[in-house]
Request: fold
Amino acid sequence: MLDNLFLQEEHKLIRDTARKFAQTRIVPEASELDKNHRFPKEIISEMGKLGLMGVAIPQEFGGAGMDVLSYYLALEEISVACASTGVIMSVNNSLSCDPILKFGTDAQKKEFLVPMASGKVLGCFCLTEPQAGSDPAGMKTTAVREKDYYILNGTKNFITNGAEARFAITFAITDKAKGHKGITAFVVDTKSTGFRVGKLEEKLGIRASSTAEIHFQNCRVPVSQRLGEEGDGFKIAMMTLDSGRIGIAAQAIGISRAAYERAVSYAKEREQFGSPIAQFQAIQFMIADMATKIDAARLLAVRAAMKKDRKERFSKEAAMAKLFASETAMWVTSKAIQIHGGYGYCNEYQVERHYRDAKITEIYEGTSEIQRLVIASHELKE
Ligand code: CAA
Reply:
C-alpha cells in the first residue's frame, strides 16, 4: 500500500527482510511462545544479527543505520508474527537506544548503546511506579548524590524487558522541591548491587514478553551514568515516549494485520448457507472497514515516522498514530473473532491471541486518554 507513495528501495529491502524472518522464523513458534509465556531469547538474538534491535541507530553505534520509517516498517512485520516479540523490539529500539543516542555522552554511547543497538544485550525503561502511571511526575524513586555516585531507592513496575535487560534507563527524583524539573535520568547497569528484579506479572496478552517489578535498594550508580543534566529527566522521558508511541502504533498495526489476514482467508474458506461467507455483505462490510482502518492507522504512523526523520516535532502525530492504531487493533481483532464465530473464540485459529495482545496497546506508553490529552493540548495551542 505504501510502495509507490513513500518507499525507497532500502525501505522495501528492510521490510521484506523483516517479513521473511517474521513469517519463517517467528510465526511457527508464536502460538507456543504465548501459551508457555516463553521469552523468545534465540529469536531476539537472531534479530540482533539482522540489525532489528537498533534499526535507526547509526552503524558507528552498533545499529543498522537506517531511518525511522525503516524501523516502523520492520516493527510492523515482526508484530504481525508475534506481538510479544514486537514489544521487546520496540522497547529496545525506542525506549532504550533512542534516549542514549539523543542525550548520551560519547562514552555512554560506546559503553551502553553499542551493545544494545547491536542486539547483544537488551534495554528497559524504568519510569512507571506503583503509584505513578499516567502521572510519572508523581514518582517516588529517589537518587541522592554521594561524591561520584548517586544512590537510588524506590520501586518501578510494569517494566517490559525488566527481567532480561542488561541496562535500564531509569528516572528518579534528585530534587523533590522542583517537581517535574527535579527528575533526573540514568543508565543503570542491572548487574549493579541494589538492582533487583521482583514480581513478574501474569498477563492477558503479550505473554512471551516479561513485565517486571524492579527494586532499587541503595543502588549505586556512577555520576558518569547520568543521562543529561540533573533535572532533565522528565523531558527526556517525554521525548523518548514520543518515539516509543510510533513503535506501539507499529505493533498495534501489526496485530491488526495478523487478525485481518486470518479473517479474510477464513471468510473465503468457510461455507454457510451454500457459499463462502466472504460472499455475504455482512462479512464484506466488516472486511472493508477493517482494511480501511488499518490503512488509515498506517498512514498516521508513517507520517509520524517521516516527521521524526525530518527532525520536525512529532509529539502530536505520534500520539494520534498510537491512539488510532491501538483502538483499531481492538476493533479489528474483535471483528476477526466475529468472522471466525465459535472457532475464533478458541485458540486453534489464533485470532484470540491477537485480541488479547491488542488490549495492551491502548494502555502502555500512555493510555488512549493520555494520547487524547496530548493531542488536545497541541490542537488548542496551534
Ligand atoms: N517533549 C518535550 N517536552 C515535553 C513533552 C514532550 N513530548 N511533553 C511535555 N513536555 C514538557 C513540557 O513542555 C513542560 O515543560 P516546562 O516545565 O519547561 O514548561 C514539562 O514537560 C511538563 O509538561 P506537562 O505540564 O504537560 O506535564 P504533565 O505532568 O502534566 O504530564 C502528560 C503530561 C502528557 C500527562 C505526561 O505525564 C504523560 O505522557 N503521561 C503518560 C506517561 C506514559 O506514557 N507512561 C508510559 C510508561 S512507559 C511504558 O509503558 C514502558 C513499557 O515498558 C512498554
